[in-house]
Automatic annotation (TrEMBL):
One of its GO terms (molecular function) is G protein-coupled receptor activity. It is found in: Membrane. One of its GO terms (cellular component) is plasma membrane. It is a multi-pass membrane protein. Residues 1-253 form the G-protein coupled receptors family 1 profile domain. It comes from the Eukaryota. It comes from Elysia marginata. Keywords: G-protein coupled receptor, Membrane, Receptor, Transducer, Transmembrane, Transmembrane helix. This is FMRFamide receptor. PROSITE patterns: G_PROTEIN_RECEP_F1_2 (PS50262).
Amino acid sequence: MTFFPSLAFAPGYCSVMVFLAYVCSFLSAWFVVLMMAERYIAVCHPFKASALCNKRKSVMVIAGLSVFSVLLYSHSFFTTIESRPCAIDAGSYGFLIVFTYLDSFLVLVVPFLAIVLLNLKVIFTVRGFRRQHNLLNNSVHGHQGGSCGGSGHNSNNNSTTTACTTSTTTLRFHTSSKTLSLAQVRSTKMLVWVSSVFLVLYLPSYAARLYGLILQQAAGGFKTEQQRLHFQIAQQLCQFLYFLNFAIDFLVYLVTSNNFRRNIRRFIKNIRVKGKRSSIRRRPGVRGRL
């Protein structure tokens, strides 16, 4: 709240900020899971994709997750004390310990396992899919060369023409199918990168928080002030990675997607063209000459 420091002293500021932090963390993790689940269905079960992945069901799932997260983390308004800095209610400390384990399970363990398993399944399926296409491509080209090689003989002209036509039709069909599959492979690769970067940047923050909680419960806290300082530094670094996760998706799209880079260049080009047109129109006497 650097731009609006007065908001930090508004009533309910601590409760709202803690609540939003919980909800945004939960939704960001599960939206990535939903994204990879949609890609898994599209790649591994393409015939069911139109029935399972439509706009109506997507809205229902997103709305359900949002409502669930709001209800799950509504305790923030009762367990947070309005102080500077924000603090938790001492009477709710036991509840928050149990809830932290539950939150870590829902936002760390389950999404991590789901994303890893879905990514592995999608990667292996795409690899097998591309291997089959390469084999089919080689067989089609081989069949086309062998069938059309004797097209100069009149006695076999009809049969050769039929073979060449069939082979060419098969090649065209295969080329069209391959083009579609390569587009899916590229989008799948991009989403796998996005989800992998999410895991790398997202997990350390929750792991550090869980480690601190377990250490607090098992060993009674830090034995020396130096250990506490080292942990706070590590926790701040993990927190930086966590916040970096919300800003780095643009760079991931830019690096992994040719189509995204093409659209960015087209967008910048359109802005330049519109800027030149507007500058020309503003020049005195241009309107009269036009």
